[in-house]
Structure formats: C-alpha cells, structure tokens
Amino acid sequence: QVYLMESGGGLVQAGGSLRLSCEASGSIFSINAMGWYRQAPGKQRELVATISSSDSTNYADSVKGRFTIFSDNAKKKVYLQMNTLNPEDSGVYYCNINLRPRISAGAMEYWGKGTLVTVSS
After folding, report:
1. Which of 20, 54, 63, 68 has a Cα-to-Cα distance from 82 of 20 to 30 A?
2. Phi, psi of 107 (to 5 degrees)
C-alpha cells in the first residue's frame, strides 16, 4: 500500500503565495511521475502540474509562470510553489503519484486526500 500525505494548504489573500508539500510512503520501488491536481466546487478535477522522474514538467496554461513544481525523489516528496494566487486558484489540491510498488509490478496510481486552498479577493 502507498500513502500520500499533503500539507501546506490554507487561506491566503489574492496576490499571495503558498507552498504545498506531498510525501509518499509505503511500498515504492520506483516513481514514474508525481503531480498536483485541483478541484473547485462544482467543477471537475483538473491537472495543475506534473513532474516526471527525469524532471520533465507540465503545467496547466492557467498556472504557467506562477506555479512551480519540484520534487525530491530520494525523499519521495513533491512540492508546488504557488505565487500570485487569485481566487480562481481556490479548491482542493490533490497529490498524485504514478509508481511501481515492486520490481515485478506494473505502474500504479495513487491519490492523496487533498488539501484545501482558499484565495480571498
């Protein structure tokens, strides 16, 4: 089993910054990619940013230039630095990991329980 522990959410004013953290633990042989998704009330979950094991990154157009994803694979952690936040960035942010739990296993995907980010205008 794999567990993801997210932290760093909270309430911030528009224009402010937050850093989200996610740490994976459990049965992990190798990590293929980690990422962050978010879900606003009444909306579908959407990709925010991902980072591969080779440090290749991908961002939603809405956060490019404002958010930065980085990871520490040795510590099984991924971070999301969020700057110049606006109310449209509010929502529950979920950590996601694509990994191989054992050398003999294929890739599997896990989700954290989410951390709430609220940006006030």
Report:
1. 54
2. -70, 145
User: What tokens were used for 58?
Assistant: 């991908």
Sign of torsion over alpha carbons 6, 7, 13, 15: negative
Provide the residue count of the chain.
Answer: 121
Tell me, what DSSP letter sits at residue 15? T
Query: How far is Cα 72 from Cα 57, in angstroms, rounded to an integer?
Result: 14
> How confident is the model over 24-78, as pLDDT tens digits?
999 899 999 999 999 999 999 999 999 999 999 999 999 999 999 999 888 899 9
Q: Which residue has the tokens 């402010």?
A: 16
Q: What does the DSSP assignment read for 37-93? A: EEE-TTS--EEEEEEETT--EEE-GGGTTTEEEEEEGGGTEEEEEE-S--GGG-EEE
CA distances (Å), 52 to each of 3, 55, 65, in order? 19, 5, 19
